[in-house]
Every structure is written in C-alpha cells, then in structure tokens.
Design a protein that fits this description.
mainly alpha, 7% strand, 13 helices
Length: 336
C-alpha cells in the first residue's frame, strides 16, 4: 500500500504527468531581423542604337554630257569610293555647298559665255574646296590650283608683288581657257579633266603606250585615276544635297560677293593701307577683296582693284588729288 502511494506521488510530480503543474509556454521564437536590402546600383540608360543611313549611288550619271559606264564593276566601285567620302565628309561637303552658292554663279556665267559644259564648275570644288588661298605641297596655288609655268602660259602674273592665281576672276578665265584647249586635244571630257590634273603630255603618252582612248580603261597615276571620280561624286551630291542629308537653309549659305571695280595706274610704289583708306575700308578688308596682292605695297604699274560697293568714285578722287600714300624708304634703303 505504501509503495502504491509513493508511486502515485512520483507520477504527480513527473513533468507532463497527470498532476504536473503546467509550465508557462515559451514565447514563439522571433526570427532574426533581416538585413535591409542593399540599394541597387543605378543602371545607366541603354545607349540608343545608332544607325547610319545608306545612300546608294545614282543609277545613271554623266559628265559634261558623256555617260559614265556604271555597269562596269571597276567603274562603279571607283565611283562608290569617292561618293562615300563626299557624302560622309559632312563638315567639308557642307562647306562646299556654302561656298558654291557664292562662287558658282560667276563660274556658270563664264562657262555659258564660252559654250562650255556646266559640269566643269565642279572642277574648282575638287581642286581647292573653293578656298582662294589654297596651296598644295607641290606648289599649285589658288582656287584652280595652277602651277607657275601653266599660270604664266595663260597670262596670269606671278612676281614678288602679285600672284594672279589667287584672283578668282582671273584664275577662272585662265582655267576655262585651258580646259577648252585640253578638250580640243583629247577625245573626251573625262580625259581633258585627267590632263588638267596630271598634264596633257602624261595623258597622251599613256594613251599611246597603252593604246587606250577611254579614261575609264586607262592606267594613270593614282591621284589622276581618282580625280574624275571625285568630280563625279561632287556633282552627284551637289545637284541633290537634300537627298544625302545636306539640308542647309538659304540663310546658311554664303552670298555672292558684291564689289565695285576700279582701274588704277600707280606712278610710284603705294602702301596697301593707303589704297584701303582711299576707298573707306581697312587694310585686312582690302587684302581680302584683292588676295592677289602679296605684300604691304605695290610698285608702279596698272592694276584693277575690287573695292567696297559704292566706293569707286571716292577711290578715283583720291587718285586724282594725291590721296594715295607712297611707300617711304627706310634710311638703310636710302644708303643703297
């Protein structure tokens, strides 16, 4: 009996037994605090996809009325090279278009008066980018890039004081006369333009040696082989600039230059600054209008000057009444 009572008491005290006192339940386990998510690195905006338009070659092209054989693969590829360069030289071709608006009207008038093809105006564009002061490493000078002997052959004065290759009007007259002679000597305008680039003697020798009379089949110096294609590419783009992405508004083009012209006979050496003052302008402006003047003075002789509009009468009066300042010799010059 005593044993039974003791067993019942033990059961009552056993945890979880029938008589055990319930222990307070442990609070539910709190999950550990999660670390705040790291701030996402800012994403750079995706670069927009750049696509350049494709400008195809014209299907037909002519030079001075002569068809270009574009169906010949070698001709098409040679033209394509120069065409792509002209189309994608965006800055240079834009300047071509701006300057052409200024200078082409004079070239077109002179071509028409001589009965020459209008396409020849693109020659001056390729030769010098229509920069009056252009000079090549070989010494060709001016907008039409005359070498000294050829310039003198066509009566352009070159000396210590004057270089008429830099005068646009005089150089244009000489260039068109030369091109007309070249066309008489050669069977096509393409060959005439090649001769303008490397000389008629070289073209004639190569034609005789190779027995070829077609520019597109004639082996010539690399520059000359590319030359006519450059002229053709310039023509293609300049005839339809908007089609190739050149959309220049009229106010963005350079207007034709407006000058008075006056002939002057200088009886003694005259300072250029005095000539400028006589027509109411300044030295730099006078030199820009007359880029053929090489120095600060001009020796005695007969000259034709470009003057600011409306200043011809003032300039004439300055000549008549001694308003031109002669060059003053330095003491060292007087001793000689």
């Amino acid at each position: 009996m005593i044993v039974i009572i003791l067993l019942l008491g033990c059961l009552a005290l056993w945890p979880g037994g029938p008589g055990a006192r319930a222990l307070p339940s442990a609070p539910p386990e709190t999950p550990p605090l999660a670390a705040p998510p790291a701030a996402a690195a800012p994403q750079a905006p995706a670069a927009p996809e750049v696509r350049f338009p494709y400008f195809p070659l014209p299907e037909k092209l002519s030079l001075c009325g002569e068809a270009v054989p574009l169906k010949e693969p070698s001709v098409r590829e040679s033209l394509d090279r120069e065409f792509v360069i002209v189309v994608w030289s965006r800055a240079q071709t834009t300047m071509w278009l701006k300057r052409a608006h200024r200078y082409f009207p004079e070239v077109e008038r002179k071509l028409k008066s001589r009965g020459l093809p209008d396409d020849l105006k693109y020659v001056v564009l390729v030769e010098s980018d229509l920069r009056l002061q252009a000079r090549s490493h070989a010494g060709a000078t001016g907008p039409w890039q005359f070498m000294g002997p050829t310039a003198q052959r066509f009566d352009l004065t070159i000396n210590n004081d004057v270089d008429q290759r830099l005068d646009f009007g005089s150089a244009t007259d000489a260039a068109l006369d030369y091109l007309k002679i070249l066309r008489r000597q050669l069977p096509s305008w393409a060959l005439a333009l090649a001769a303008y680039n490397c000389g008629e003697g070289r073209v004639k020798r190569e034609m005789a040696a190779q027995r070829v009379r077609n520019y597109y089949h004639l082996a010539l110096p690399e520059e000359t082989e590319r030359y006519v294609y450059r002229v053709l590419a310039a023509k293609a783009v300049c005839e339809a600039p908007a089609a190739y992405g050149f959309d220049i508004p009229p106010h963005g083009l350079y207007g034709p230059l407006d000058y008075d012209q006056a002939e002057a006979i200088l009886t003694q050496e005259i300072m250029v600054r005095s000539l400028a003052a006589a027509c109411g302008t300044y030295y730099k402006d006078f030199k820009d209008m007359n880029p053929w003047i090489k120095g600060d003075s001009l020796p005695p002789g007969s000259y034709v000057f470009n003057l600011p509009p409306g200043s011809a009468d003032r300039f004439a009066k300055a000549q008549r009444f001694g308003g031109l300042e002669p060059k003053v010799e330095t003491p060292s010059q007087l001793k000689q």
